[in-house]
Amino acid sequence: MIGLISATAAGAAARDRLAAAWPDRTRVYEGPVGDAVRAAFAECEQLVCFLATGAVVRLVAPLLGDKKSDPGVVCVDEGGRFAVSLVGGHGGGANELAEQVGELLGAAPVVTTATDAVGIPGLDTLGLPVEGDVAGVTRALLDGEPVALDAEVAWPLPPVPFAPRGRHTVRLTDRAVEPVDGEVLLRPPSLVVGVGASKGAPVEEVLGLVEGALRDAGLSARSIAELATVDAKRDEPGIVEAAARLGVPVVTYSAAELAKVEVPNPSDAPLTAVGTPSVAEASALARGGELLVPKRKSARADGHASMATCAVVRRAARGRLAVVGLGPGARDLLTPRATAELRRASVLVGLDQYVDQIRDLLRPGTRILESGLGAEEERARTAVAEARKGQAVALIGSGDAGVYAMASPALAEASDDIDVTGVPGVTAALAAGAILGAPLGHDHVSISLSDLHTPWEVIERRVRAAAEADIVVTFYNPRSRGRDWQLPKALAILAEHREPATPVGVVRNASRPDESSRLTDLASLDPATVDMMTVVTVGNTATREIAGRMVTPRGYRWQEAAS
Prior knowledge:
Blueprint: E1 2-6, H1 9-21, E2 26-28, H2 33-43, E3 46-50, H3 53-60, E4 72-76, E5 82-87, H4 94-105, E6 108-110, H5 114-118, E7 130-132, H6 134-142, E8 147-151, E9 168-172, E10 183-186, E11 191-197, H7 203-217, E12 224-230, H8 237-246, E13 250-253, H9 255-259, H10 268-274, H11 280-285, E14 290-297, E15 308-314, E16 320-325, H12 336-344, E17 347-351, H13 352-358, E18 367-371, H14 376-388, E19 392-397, H15 407-413, E20 419-423, H16 428-436, E21 437-438, E22 444-448, H17 456-468, E23 472-476, H18 486-495, E24 503-508, E25 516-521, E26 534-538, E27 544-546, E28 549-551, H19 556-562
Parallel strand pairs: 1-2, 1-3, 3-4, 5-6, 8-9, 9-10, 11-12, 12-13, 16-19, 16-20, 17-18, 17-19, 21-28, 22-23
Antiparallel strand pairs: 4-5, 7-10, 11-15, 14-15, 23-26, 24-25, 24-26, 27-28
Helix pairs in contact: 7-8, 14-15, 17-18
């Protein structure tokens, strides 16, 4: 929850705008400002104070405890010009909150955290438990000193400018080791602990068994990703409470699923009890991995039979592939989500000219794998291969990456051993449509006239179907030096079903500095004026030119009324 505090009418007006925009995230604190700040500080994860920074400093200073637990505090000045991240930039999320508040209120976010200022992710913001000399190693990164990455376990990380070797080290490990001087330990969630338990097994027995297994194997409890068990035990109090104390979720599988998992130590007891010959080992191995601790039973001091079993598996790192649409070219049509994915990726794969568009958005340390035209399948294979190594990868394409771009070849290569996310972008058809007016107001279709990947016979059949169905058509890849007859042929097919005066919009380099557009008709369009940087939109029988704009009505009632 975000606490909102103001002292003046102007501050209250801005406060209320924020409260209206985020009704489920915010709570307004009324009354004397000091009391309001103290109450919000105790009750909320974050605060936005519409007060001078000096006033907020004096009010929160006596309340500060630890940067890991203090709420993030953002100040907005009386004029609404700045959103200042004051306290808890990383731990309290104030830096991100300042960006969000600034965007909503039209204020400039002010972030002074050193790593954010130079574009290096803070070691305590990587989403992993961190131990050791965080301040010293971060300072070394900021000063340009060589900091080495010792990755004992592969795991996707955002870009950090690591060196092959150096006095300082970031060690990515799930081993139970202590950091040495000049070292930071990052704990990846690489361990899955499978647990079986008899009904009523006490939490102390379950937890003691898990902690003992990890200790004996030299593994860190901070790298546990989850406790896994059979569905029948999803509500077993000892397992549920053990997971809660470890701060991890409980993941369950059906007995039928677990019975299919090959394990080294099957048993008749769980087969009789829950329908699978293994619970601990099978649930730990259900999604693959390396068995580090085979099934072991709890030892009871009272001499009674053990009530819990566990096994520990190191799962393979799941790399992450983000397929990112960059939009038509203009920076303000690049979505915030796309920008975030570009800054999150440690490896960027893309066409060289697209890489040049967004190179300035990449964080230091990003590895760039670029290639020229015609290497789409190679780029897709490269991106998937890098993700399979455990990297965080962004594969970029223009417009929307799923429309005549990189998403389809990448997903054809990818299997379920990596995580894939798609980031939509503004397509060329949409960008051109907005420039022309509203040509896509009713049913429409996009057709590529390039026969490099699709036989012309198939393309022609699709054009003819669109013509007969009276659908607005946007042609991608309409004409190149080596393909100069396809567009005239496609227009001729449409002309068999549409009047010569049917509006046609031609847009070249939509949204870019050299953008050009014109509105013509089906009879007048000269295909020789069209190239590969152009999209051509042909209206249907209802499309009209109105005040110099191309408009297709949402339905035909409007057309009938107009006539």
